[in-house]
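Thread title: Can someone regenerate the structure for this chain?

I was given the following input by a collaborator and told the matching structure tokens would be attached. They weren't. Posting the sequence so someone can regenerate them.
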Amino acid sequence: MINEGVQVEHTDSKTIAAKSATVLLDDCKSTAKKQLAADPQSANEILESLSACVQKGIADEIEKANEEIAFQAEVRKDMAAMVENYTCADVTMNTTEAKRTERWGGREVNVMIDRPASKVHTIQNFLTAEECKAVQDAAAPILHDATVADGSGGSKLSDSRKAKQAGIKVHWDKEDSGDLIARLSRRVYDYVNHVLPFDIKENGQEDLMSIQYFGRGPDDETPDRYMPHCDGDCTGLDFKPGNRMATIVMYCDVPEVGGATRFRNSNIHINPKQYAATFFSYIDPVTMKMDSGFTEHSGCPVIEGEKKIVTQWVRLGVDDENPWNSFNTREYIYYVFEFNLYECAFKLNSIMLVVINSGSQVH
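Best answer:
Regenerated them for you:
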């Protein structure tokens, strides 16, 4: 029962925003009216003043909102970091429930997160046992300790990543004859182009990567795992041509215990399922802004059994003339020419020319 004279006000984010806008506009209109009353002949100046008042008010409100968003994002990330080890240690944790389920090529697709710059999907039965065997056979003689980008264009060993890996070149010239690896790789790009509007080609892309994690029991103090990281830029900044913007992780062998893929800032937990795949993209195709941390992910420790995956990192802005390895982790692309006295290095985007003496190294 609501008695007479009681006012009921519904408040949510939209009504708060509308009220704030009304107060802002009323304040600016009140100032403009006073100016008009004092000097009726200065209408143009008053309109300019009104516009400036509104503009400043909006800028102040946006700044306050951005500060609040940044604060809440930091709190969210700190909380996610604190529970990371607990969620990985809980081997009974189920895969997060999907937002919705779709179909692609006869396969079930579970959409886990669907933000403009942050998408995470799982695709069932993405690859076959024969395709897995083909990749693993190609990887066997060249497996080596996994590395991470070193920030200067190369790679290095790191305690944050413990696994074996091998880059697998795709023989596209054998695609028409039914090459299994080429067939799998084509499916990868087909799915990327199904989700993103970039018409990505295989030209200049990174090799397929076979990655293998091995469980050595619950007492192993340094289990095979991959600590939280982003595959590309996840700071919300503008996309830089040539960089990664999507990833597909395909599960060939799954461990008995451990090995989940976890997107901690989105609270998404994915238990690996044999022959399934996890796709995630970290670019807004409209604004070309990068993800702001929602696709940061980790590979939980493998405790028992083996986890063998195939990963494709997908780049935008590469081709045969500008392949992936011409871009380093500082977003530079180098073209080196032989001259009598000089070598030239060009920075992509700004085309900034750096001239250095012949015989010196390009860094």
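The chain is about 30% helix and 25% strand.
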